[in-house]
Amino acid sequence: MCCNQGFKNIICNEKVASEYLYYLLGYNTIFLNSLGRGATFKEISKKIVEEIKVPLPVKELQNQFAVFTRQVDKSKFVAKQ
């Protein structure tokens, strides 16, 4: 994976369901934006990313959360139509 210096890649290990982390971070954008620094382009430093606490339930609960959240997103999309 490659990106520029202003972007942090997060690669999940076997303990983290990627879809769980996707939705968890997506629903916390206000908090994550508050951590950004910079005038022109907000960036979260590697140090700050490493310090973010991520609730890590067992994998089955992570998957259930992801399925539920995906359904909520679909419902929101349909409601907007």
TrEMBL record:
Annotated Pfam families: Methylase_S
Gene Ontology biological process terms, A to Z: DNA restriction-modification system
Keyword Transferase belongs to the record: no
Segments passing through the bilayer: none
Domain of life where this protein originates: Bacteria
InterPro entries noted in UniProt: Restrct_endonuc_typeI_TRD, Restrct_endonuc_typeI_TRD_sf, Type-I_RS_S_subunit
Domain Type I restriction modification DNA specificity: 2-74
Molecular function terms from GO: DNA binding; endonuclease activity; hydrolase activity
Top EC category: hydrolase
EC number(s) reported in the record: 3.1.21.-
Alphabetic keyword roster: DNA-binding, Endonuclease, Hydrolase, Nuclease, Restriction system
Annotated family: Belongs to the type-I restriction system S methylase family.
Official protein name in the record: Restriction endonuclease subunit S
Naturally occurring in which organism (per UniProt): Candidatus Minimicrobia vallesae
